[in-house]
Amino acid sequence: MPWPGTLTEKSIADILSWLHGWDNSQLVVALAAANAAISLNNQLLTKAEPVTCHRPFDIPANLAVFAHFAEQLHGADVAIIGRYPGIEYFDKQFSYTCIERTPQGRDLPDAAANYILPQADWVFITASSLTNKTLPHLLWLARNATVVLMGPSMPWLAEWADFGVDYLAGVQVEDPALLHTIISQGGGTKIFDAAAPYRVIKL
Predict the structure, then answer these.
(1) Fold for domain 43-202?
(2) What are the boundaries of each domain within the chain?
(3) Phi, then psi, of 156 in degrees rounded to 5
(4) How confident is the model at residue 34 (pLDDT cuts 50, 70, 90)?
(5) Helix (H/G/I), strand (E/B), else coil: 198
């Protein structure tokens, strides 16, 4: 990568132009820059409901969104794009199919989305599908389902409704110093506990 150490010299417009490219590292940085701008004084984010229902049950915070929707998912055909560590916690509450780029265990590979999503009642899509540019196809496949776009890289935009998204489930940074510490020490699901907890809103 030729650009490390040079980002502070670039305008946000220069960085956002990377969203049109195919370099995954540049796309991740560009999406982060876009989210920083979008989240500033964002009324949609302010209106979103903090997700706290997982706390009394000691459900890991990275699974808070699934705890939030669990009652609605009982008896439904649920598809989850992306692997969420510990998702097995919900095995007895609702049935689901995980579709993952690098499948493990019961996960199905990417190609399964073409067959699973058109039949699903609910589809949870990781916002990392923005950077690997699979999101447009996934939304088309899930056009008959209730769609939740989720994850820390999810842009808080009401316009997602125009593309078939029903709910946004993203994060709000509550403790920047703690978030920086967690990321500098390896990151992972700990960010969802207090540093950047989930919020949900219906579009």
Answers:
(1) Rossmann fold (3.40.50)
(2) 1-40, 43-202
(3) -80, 85
(4) very high
(5) strand
Cα separation, 123 vs 80, in Å, equals 6
pLDDT exceeds 90 at position 183: no
Of the candidates 2, 32, 4, 15, which has an alpha carbon nearest to the alpha carbon of residue 152? 32
Question: From CA 106, how far away is CA 166, in angstroms rounded?
Answer: 27
Q: Which of 108, 89, 86, 87 is nearest to 97 (CA)?
A: 108
Those residues with Cβ within 8 angstroms of residue 138's Cβ, 6 or more apart along the chain or in another chain: 81, 113, 117, 123, 125, 129
Question: Does pLDDT of 102 surpass 80?
Answer: yes
The backbone torsions φ and ψ at residue 145, rounded to the nearest 5 degrees and listed phi first, read -105, 165
Phi, psi of 98 (to 5 degrees): -95, 130
- CA angle 55-178-195, nearest 5°? 35
Q: Residue 179: helix, strand or coil by DSSP?
A: helix
Closest CA to 24 of 166, 101, 107, 130: 130
The residue to which tokens 């000691």 are assigned = 58
* DSSP per-residue codes, 40-62: TT-HHHHHSEE--TTGGGT--GG
